[in-house]
Write a structure and sequence with these properties.
The complex is a heterodimer of chains A (182) and B (510).
Chain A (H helix, E strand, L loop, with lengths): L2 E5 L11 H14 L6 E4 L6 H8 L7 E3 L6 H10 L2 E5 L2 H9 L3 E5 L5 H4 L6 E7 L18 H4 L3 H13 L14
Parallel strand pairs in A: 1-2, 1-4, 2-3, 4-5, 5-6
Helix pairs in contact in A: 1-2, 1-7
Chain B lengths: L34 E3 L17 E5 L8 H10 L6 E7 L24 H11 L5 E9 L16 E8 L36 E8 L5 E6 L3 H6 L1 H10 L4 E6 L4 H7 L4 E4 L14 H11 L3 E7 L7 H4 L3 E8 L10 E3 L7 E2 L2 E5 L5 E2 L4 E2 L4 E3 L10 E10 L2 E11 L6 E8 L2 E9 L6 E5 L4 E8 L9 E10 L2 E2 L4 H19 L1 E4 L5
Helix pairs in contact in B: 1-2, 4-8
The chains are: A alpha/beta (182), B alpha/beta (510).
Chain lengths: 182, 510
């Protein structure tokens, strides 16, 4: 079964795309993904499970799973390797997936400079917002005077488009090591 | 909260099955209402109106459903506020007696339930604070734990959910409320950011860059060329298969050809061999440059640290342009080693420590530009007369030179010292003829510097005037060798082109 892995959480709210956007994104992916049996797995820690319930709630449990707290690290790594696409913020999961050569869509907030901190990899797509207050180098979303516009204004439609494009253009062999670009 | 007795739910509008026997623990939750039993053959109850049933009984359905979350939400939607959903699922510890799927005893089973797992699904399916859990229990009446016969007695989990009115307040999910920040237009509700260009979403990915045709500009002088040799050799190694054109000042052509590293060596004088020979007409040089190099290159490199030749890159038809400098200085660079050359040299600094930042104890007098002491006024031996200004310093080597005039009315010797973070440092005696200097070293950022003038202990303290002092910081440089800068640039280009790829915008939407 093909899976899309979504990692909605970084270690700072200044880098987290809004949960409501993830919810909308999942709906768009279920509609647009050319795999009626494909599974979307939302990952995180056990402590993030309740928050993730709100993300997965509108969708069938057979298509969208809340895996927060349910995967051991080794299992998560394997899920990333096996995914047809991984969606994350400016966070470790996106870096890991990018390093595996898995198609990865990184929703990159404006707090940091993407040229400096983006995940590396030839299958990585970085979505970021051209916005005047970036980079702010703030460390917590609550301190943002602009309502996290750098993240809110990246629309679920834009991300869905990038994800479907990444899947369609993938050269990644599921479960394989990172390709040698040379 | 009791259902409204006038609610039409008393008369179900959808299909209703004859009620299954209701487990005893569930019966107190039925009250006076008719129980709507979820039909296993149409569990989503699509033809049943929302809010139409006060009591819904879903027995032994979830464990085999493909979309348990959808079922729970569908059943919950049939309840009015105050209505109850009675759920019954097999207890995996009693019924299947298994810990994991696939089930040996029930092929086709989609999930096994413990009470915790059922609760987990309920929390996942239902919006917080739209319901309360009124009961969750193991139902094992008459279950014979001694028997290996699984069919004996009750072996299920029972849960009762009551729909409640959702409160107006929101749960704190830890996320920001979008709110209306200060710079949001109240009319449009849209964020109005300060922006250097229209806000839009960038859609970027990395790509391998072709580097079949490479052009390297090494337009500087002989010494620069020599120092650039390691980088030139590295470039040949990195781009082993590429056709490389090297552009040098005519004074370096012979040596460049002798290297034998490059496919083409072309002379171009961006500036005179001796910069004092003539004034450079940059516009004319650029026009000449464009004429000389009309070709198309995959990669163009300016191998010079000084920024003055970077502009030529912008007049080449190249897929990628690489050089030393910041993106702010050279927006046309695709690969840049971000060294702000204006900051490479941390120059010597001088700071005036003003009198008004010092403290003077009586009998000293203080005006806006001078602190003075009159020797006719006695002071206790060794007393500190002047101190300050507690200037915060960055690490480095310093010299403090106080500006002091000592009168002729005493022994003409004055005791001075300095301290950093109140730790006394050098102590010196100043005389009319010898102006003291206090060299010292600051090791920790923010160290507080203090200069002090003391009354003498073994002789009379002379009259003096203090006008502040000069604090000099020794210049320091944080530089690499020119050869290293250039070699690092080639390494960076190699990493970008061959290993990490070049971040490329694929277009976006505003």
């Amino acid at each position: 079964m093909n899976t899309i892995v979504i990692a909605p959480y970084s270690n700072s709210s200044i880098r987290d795309w809004p949960a409501a956007h993830f919810t909308t994104l999942i709906g768009l992916l279920l509609d647009g993904w050319n795999d009626p049996d494909g599974l979307i797995r939302v990952t995180g820690t056990a402590g993030q499970r309740l928050r993730t319930n709100a993300i997965v709630r509108p969708y069938p449990s057979g298509r969208v799973q809340n895996d927060c707290g349910r995967l051991e690290w080794v299992d998560l790594v394997q899920e990333l390797r096996n995914a047809v696409c991984v969606i994350g913020n400016n966070s470790g999961i996106a870096h890991l997936a990018g390093s595996f050569g898995v198609p990865t869509v990184c929703i990159f907030g404006g707090s940091h400079q993407r040229r400096e901190w983006r995940p590396l990899g030839f299958q990585v797509t970085v979505l970021s917002r051209e916005i005047g207050c970036s980079p702010c180098h703030l460390d917590h979303g609550a301190r943002c005077p602009n309502g996290l516009a750098c993240l809110w204004d990246i629309s679920p439609e834009e991300v869905a488009h990038a994800v479907l494009k990444a899947i369609a253009g993938s050269t990644h062999t599921i479960g394989a090591a990172a390709p040698d670009p040379a | 909260m009791k259902p409204n007795s006038t609610d039409p739910v008393a008369k179900p509008t959808g299909a209703s099955l004859p009620g299954l026997p209701l487990p005893l623990p569930l019966q107190p939750f039925v009250g006076e209402y008719r129980v709507f039993t979820v039909p296993p053959e149409a569990p989503f109850c699509d033809d049943v109106a929302f809010g139409s049933h006060c009591v819904i009984h879903a027995a032994n359905i979830l464990q085999d459903a493909g979309d348990s979350r959808g079922l729970l939400r569908a059943w919950f939607a049939l309840l009015p506020v105050g209505g109850r959903l009675l759920i019954e699922v097999p207890h995996t510890f009693l019924c299947e007696r298994e810990l994991a799927l696939p089930s040996r005893t029930h092929p086709g089973r989609r999930r096994l339930y413990s009470p915790a797992m059922l609760l987990d699904e309920l929390e996942e399916a239902l919006v917080p604070n739209t319901y309360r859990l009124r009961m969750l229990c193991d139902h094992d009446d008459d279950y014979d734990y001694a028997s290996s016969d699984k069919r004996s007695g009750q072996q299920s989990i029972l849960a009762v959910i009551e729909r409640i009115e959702r409160p107006e307040w929101e749960l704190d999910t830890g996320e920001l409320s979008r709110g209306v920040p200060a710079n949001v237009s109240s009319e449009s509700g849209r964020f109005e950011p300060v922006s250097f260009e229209p806000p839009r979403t960038r859609h970027e990915h990395v790509a391998l860059a072709p580097r079949h045709r490479v052009i390297i500009l090494k337009l500087d002088h002989l010494g620069d060329f020599i120092m650039g040799l390691p980088a030139l050799e590295k470039a040949r190694t990195v781009f082993a298969d590429a056709e490389i054109t090297l552009v040098v000042g005519n004074w370096n052509v012979a040596m460049a050809r002798d290297l034998g590293l490059f496919d083409h060596v072309i002379a171009f004088d961006a500036f005179p061999r001796n910069s004092s020979e003539e004034k450079v007409d940059l516009a004319a040089r650029i026009a000449n440059f464009e004429t000389t190099f009309p070709g198309i290159y995959d990669l163009a490199i300016d191998l010079r640290t000084d920024p003055d030749t970077r502009v030529f890159l912008n007049h080449l038809r190249a897929g990628l342009r690489a050089g030393i400098g910041t993106r702010a200085q050279f927006p046309f660079l695709d690969i840049f080693l971000p060294i702000d050359l204006s900051r490479m040299f941390e120059g010597a600094a001088e700071k005036k420590l003003e009198v008004h930042d010092h403290i003077a104890l009586a009998p000293c007098r203080k005006t806006h530009h001078r602190l003075s002491y009159d020797a006719r006024k006695p002071v206790p031996a060794g007393q500190c007369l002047v101190y300050g200004p507690y200037a915060q310093l960055t690490p480095g080597d310093y010299v403090f030179i106080p500006d002091i005039e000592i009168d002729d009315d005493g022994d003409r010797v004055l005791c001075l010292d300095i301290a950093c973070d109140e730790i006394s440092g050098l102590r010196l005696l100043a005389t009319q003829d010898q102006k003291p200097q206090f060299p010292f070293c600051v090791e920790h950022p923010g160290a507080r510097f203090e200069f002090r003038i003391h009354a003498m202990t073994d002789r009379r303290t002379p009259s003096f005037s203090y006008f502040g002092g000069r604090l000099l910081r020794r210049g320091a440089s944080s530089v690499l060798h020119q050869s290293e800068y250039l070699a690092l640039l080639i390494d960076l280009i190699s990493m970008r082109v061959d290993q990490f790829g070049v971040l490329t915008e694929m277009g976006g939407s505003s």
